[in-house]
Structure formats: structure tokens, C-alpha cells
Please model this.
Amino acid sequence: MVNSATDIRELNEIVNKESLFIEVIERELAKKIIGQKDMIDKIILALLSHGHILLEGMPGLAKTLTIKSLADSLKCTFNRIQFTPDLLPADIVGTMIYNQKVGEFQVKKGPVFANFLLADEINRAPSKVQSALLEAMQEKQVTLGDQSYKLDEPFLVMATQNPLEQEGTYPLPEAQLDRFMMKIIVGYPTKANEIEILKQNSSDYRSVIEPVVDKMAIIKAKEIVKQIYMDEKIEQYIVDIVFASRFPADNKLDKLKHLISYGGSPRASINLAMAAKANAFMKRRGYVIPEDVRHVCYDVLRHRIGLTYEAEAENISTDDIITEILNAVEVP
Model:
């Protein structure tokens, strides 16, 4: 428990030392991933704060390559599941198989048993399949037969959604979207970055990602992130932001009243706090400042605020709503 300026100074020194590995990982990933620094930072941030990520972006933006490379740099296991309409829950979590030689059922673990799991195009599979994955995300364990099996640490799910070709898809229900800590919109690379991508992929040389950090460093860092100091004023700031998304009229945001159908849940407040702490850790600080909260606010809230038909008709996005809320809520 941090109670004094001396404690904060000591925590700062610990964070400054223990966060050095992030630069090492980013340098290693830069060998293969060109641009997309924001996506890399947010994946590491979610990893440090016990969260999972939903990515939305066009095909070919290095989403799969990024998480596979991150797993390689940490010497972690990686699995990828391509979600399709004929997928079954057992294809994700595993099942019990009868072994005739020994005359008993044996466990066959599914691809969810990995440190990093890429759920590619999660909206392509029916809700019962999505639910099987989301239960594993929430409980960090899988039950097969009458036994429960803990998932290895660290455990990160990165699900992707393709904004194109929405016909025949099964959009994630709001309650299931809430299980993801962040929703990240992945944009196109810059012209300069795309030229680098062309050069890299048109040559014979292929960079190899080496394991540069032990996964125990991540597990240790996750424990330190929990200890990052957050002042009561910052906690109040987080709650004020979330409440403004629920009751805009109470925060002098009457113009948003007819644009928001529902606001952030208590999980939004928890995830904002955890993500802000992880951001402070990545900035090598032992305490949270308002800028940490603002930095993660769009990613944590954009999938937790429901828009009315009126907002959609006026072409107003959740990011526009969040901007209005951040401008209205008083910064401590």
C-alpha cells in the first residue's frame, strides 16, 4: 500500500527498473512490424493489465503477424483459430476422447491452451462458440468433463473483426463485448511505412524474431502494475467519466441524452483504472496522472457506449461521444 511520498519514490524506482524490458520487446518487434506502434503498445498494455483486446481493421494490417511476433519475443506459446460458421465449442476449448486401449476417456485440450490466442474474425462464428471462448477469457480456466484446467499465465486473447462483408456474420452481443478490455481500431500505414513494407517483403532476407524477454518478466510486471499509485481524485475522475456516459444530462451534456442508448458498465471503470495503471508503468511512472486515463479512454469505452438510431442517422460515432464527455468532465 502506497501511503507517502517516500513510498511513491521507491515505487518509481522499481517501475523505472522493471519496465525496461518494454523497449527491448519493441526494438525486437520493429525488425518485422513496420509502423503500427499504437497497436503494439495497446497489446502490451492489455497484457500488463490482465485484459483482452478486440481489434477492428481491414485485412492485411499485420494483426496476426504482430501478436505472433510478440509471442515469439517472449518465448510464449501461440495459437490461431479461424472462426467459421461450422465451428463448435469443442474446437476451441477441447473435449473428452474415448481411448479404446485403456478403456477410458482422456482429455484432448483445445487451442485455447496457449499464452497468446488469436481469434480471427470472431464474428464469423455462432454465439455458442463465441461464449465458449469468452468464458475461458473471464474465468482463466476450462472445464472438460468433471475437471477444471487452469490456463497458463500470461494469457491474452486478441480477437479480430473485419468491418467488411457483414452478411452472414454473428455480431458480438453487448454483454460479450464488455468482456474485452479494449477495442482498437487499426488504421492504414503511412506512405513512408508502406514503402518500407514493400522493400521488406520483396527481398530474399527475412527477419527472425528472437526471444528477448522471459515471460516471467511479464508475470512480475503484472503484479507491479497492480501496485501503481492512484490518487482518490483520479479514481473520482474515472467514475465521473463513466457516469457521464450513463447520465449525460447530469453532467451538462443534454445534447448527448438522445444519442446514447446505454453507457459504460462498472467493468468500464475497473478497466479504465487498470489500463491507466498499465499506461503509467509503460511511461515508467509509479503513479497515475489524468493523461493516462485520457490516453486509454477511447479504447476502453468505444465498445461500451451504445448509440441510438438518431446518433447513427446523424453519423455520430462513439469516439465523438467520448470526446464530448472528456471535454465536459472536470480534470483533477
Observations:
- The mean pLDDT is 86.
- Residues 5-216 form a domain with the Rossmann fold fold (CATH 3.40.50.300).
- The chain has 14 helices and eleven strands.
